[in-house]
Design a protein that fits this description.
With 401 residues, this protein is an alpha/beta fold. It is built from 15 helices and 19 strands. Bound molecules: cytidine-5'-triphosphate.
Length: 401
Amino acid sequence: MESAQGIETVSLMGKKIILGVTGGIAAYKAAELCRLLVKAGAEVRVVMTAAAQQFVAPLTFQALSGKPVLTSLWDAASGDGMEHIHLSRDADLLLVAPASGDFLAKLAQGRADDLLTTLCLARTCKLTVAPAMNREMWAAAATQRNLEQLRADGVQLLGPAAGEQACGEVGLGRMLEPADILAALPGMLGAGPLAGKRILITAGPTFEAIDPVRGLTNRSSGKMGYAIAQAAAEAGAEVCLVSGPTCLAAPTGVRRIDVQSAAEMREAVLKELPSKAFIAVAAVADYRVDAASPQKIKKSEAGLTLDLVANPDILAEVAARPDAPFCVGFAAETERLAEHAEAKRLKKKLPLLVGNLAQDTLGQDSAELVLFDDRGQHRLPRADKLIQARALVAHLAKLLN
Ligand code: CTP
């Protein structure tokens, strides 16, 4: 499983997690999630709904968690009959994965007609859900209405992902892979290596207007910057992402500020300082049109000459401040990567620079990276950008700590 990489360092040592499993085919993946949670050091109590037991036997989870599985409100009424209260009081996190459409509906209404919904209502800890359902069920107006309610109630959502579904259809609604759910948890629990640290990131291209309908821009999908923002949030950082125009959604827990031009990006970045680290991933346009036309420029046989002026170098400016954060630069080169990247790192006085070959990376989901720091070069062989982002964040966390 591709996304299982990059999570070897996840630690949930001593964290008490209630894993709620509801009825959906993704319940079989919850078994793997349970194994990963235990491996990461968490103490896991599994609670299954009646429907979940139609897909996977409680014994599977008992074996994986090393504890009896709770399946009924009435079984749990042992001792003083307040097991549902004690369980949730004791937990650091209540994680429901998979969370079916029906379960989300009940949760949004605050219903408590079985052990899991009762625990959710009685809890004082954080509640995170990883939805899983058919794409039409996910897109249904009722589900979207319920999700809006859940977000407003402070429930954290993980996923869903898009892709092939068990029903044969393709679309949004698949449960996130267990490894991706695991990776997101330390940050949510304040246990990641960047816990409590402010990290400022730029991503995407900038757009420099020529007139109201035209402009100059760079090729950049924003995927790498957004993946780094996600990885930093997973590591517990308080992440601010200053983004040029992209088609991407902000990762969970990341605060995004949208900008268009390099000047707007610079202003937003300076406003967000101080921060512990600044990761400049954006492909900032080097030049802007000196005087953009307020009206649409009409075409002419005579051609068009534009006067361009240099844009400010945001990274160099931030790195030169007396209160400079730990600055990470990116260098997309088309040749002689090591030579150009190291020259750039020294010129901008950066403790860390990430180099890649532009033609191998642009717009793609995977990348091959080389990290340049004071100790030399570290090669990250080609992998999914999120996996690379996690490796970069782990490296950054080591240097910061
Ligand atoms: N950067 C920035 N502001 C700019 C230009 C670049 O913050 N105006 C940042 C980028 O986000 C990236 C690094 O600086 O982290 C790239 O620097 P540089 O290589 O100087 O940008 P290029 O335009 O690619 O340089 P060159 O054309 O000389 O290769």
